[in-house]
Fold:
Amino acid sequence: MKNLVKILFLNICLVLSIDAQTETLTNTTIIEMSKIGLDKEIILRKINDAKDNFDVSANALIDLKKANVADEVIALMLEKSETKNNQNNSKETSQGYSENLPNNENKQFSPTLVSVKDALLNARTVAIEKSSLNPSRQGLEKALLKRTEWQKYNLTLVRYKQDADIYIEIGFVPLSIITHRYVFRIYDRRSGAIITAGETTSWGSLSEHLAREITQKMDKVLGK
Structure:
């Protein structure tokens, strides 16, 4: 009986996930949800789970603000639009990771053999790269900065990986609709060496889960 209930639950989750993926959100949808008083956390979750066709032009953003749409909701709409544009402008063939560099990042470095520990110890700047819509870059940056472990690394977060010593690359594991698995790798940008890697799920707070796993893996590299 328990197995039957479990199977039914998984089937319901799968159907809901498929429905969410076929639904397309627009600015009008977001405004209507805000007008009826839906909590912003619910709206944020809906945006994360559904397809979208947002207008993030200056005039559209003004209309959203006039309609009292929460700033966090508008920020996530911008984030999703930015990610979609980046995906459309690049041809990435990896599963869960973006292996190709945009043309303006094709800088040549002399291959230097360094240990992953030294690469991490010598790093001063770090960037976040994503091949998935989630988590939001701002959310993950905030979650990392909140962790006490992060403070001892003396790393400054920068926007673009070509300006960073190391970078964290995050991707969604294909076909993990139910388990919602996300993977990450931390690279030494100059040598291309993988410093560490890991994975987590989006159940709960994806940003907090990733921040915890990332700092734990970094500590392990440093032998702490």
User: Anything to note?
Assistant: The first strand starts at residue 24 and ends at 25. The beta strands are 24-25, 51-52, 125-130, 156-158, 166-172, 181-188, 194-201.
